Amino acid sequence: MKDEIMVYDTVVIGGGQAGLAMGYYLKEQQRDFLIIDEEEQIGNSWRKRWDSLKLFTPKIHNELPGLLNEFETSGRTSKNNMADYLESYAAKLKLPILLGTRVWRLDKTRLGYALITTSGIINCKHVVIATGASHIAKIPSFAEELNKKIFQIHSSNYKNITSLPDGEVLIVGSATSGVEIALEIPASRKPTLAGAPTTVLPAFLFKIGRFSWLIFKNIFTIRNPLGRKVRVGYLKGGAISPLLLGRLNQSAVICKPRVVRLNNGFPELENGEVVYPDIVIWCTGYQPDFSWINFYFKKENGWPIAPRGIVPDQKGLYFIGMPFQYNSTSSLVGGVGPDAAYIAEHIKKTG
């Protein structure tokens, strides 16, 4: 760690879509702020994901406030196109960003907050945490007892089919990542998808266009009973596009109940069936990690309790980009803008 000490009014931790959207509104206020990110290049969190990844949201929903996505192509947006768009966004808006900087610890101080980073100490009055939803790969504890002859990998480390050894493949987890990966496994390798039913997004979202997403964002929010009910299912297993589900139903992928335990080192399903794959891909999501925050704040299932991104018991502390933070699109590229605008306005009002 360097000995340099920097001082800003506001620091945004994370240079992904949520952090960049936050930067847009802070710049509009002409606020003295800095965005920091541990990657060496904006967009790398997208570039590092599996090769064939495409966003499931319609193209019109894949842009941030203030700049059209010129990297859109026909069909669904690829992960590399999204990465290039984010990098272009940061450059064209001339956002102040410090790359290659990891935050080791966040401390509370008398005047605000102190970030202990690999680039030095950064003091600020407000801090916005925009570290996304993919912190630590979540893998069942019993995976350690999986038969040693079975090759296992989490989806965060999966790149493409050629990176896997030969043999039959079991994909555990039936949300979007699990289905996407299962669909690219050749039928000759008997791809099997094991998982509980996942929340299916309404079909009209993919037919009407921008207006339908506007309705969707305003109906499914934490402000009404319907939205809160949907949020419970969303946080448990994510959501899936009906178009993707249709592709799955017409594919050679074998669908099975979820894996609940091991039986002599092999996966046992909820119905008691034992399967014998050569490869297991864990598409079981992520768990939050805020252990680097060196003071107390309330959490629910590991996630901060922060209505609209505002932490009630810690003045000046904000979160953005969390799953269903305010509505069903809060963690998506096209959904972080409204949350960023709300937080920026709160910062402005509180000084």
From TrEMBL:
It comes from the Bacteria. The keyword Cytoplasm does not apply. The keyword Methyltransferase does not apply. InterPro entries: Auxin_biosynth/cation_transpt (IPR050982), FAD/NAD-bd_sf (IPR036188). GO terms for molecular function: flavin adenine dinucleotide binding; monooxygenase activity. Keywords: Oxidoreductase. This is Flavoprotein involved in K+ transport. It comes from Mucilaginibacter lappiensis.
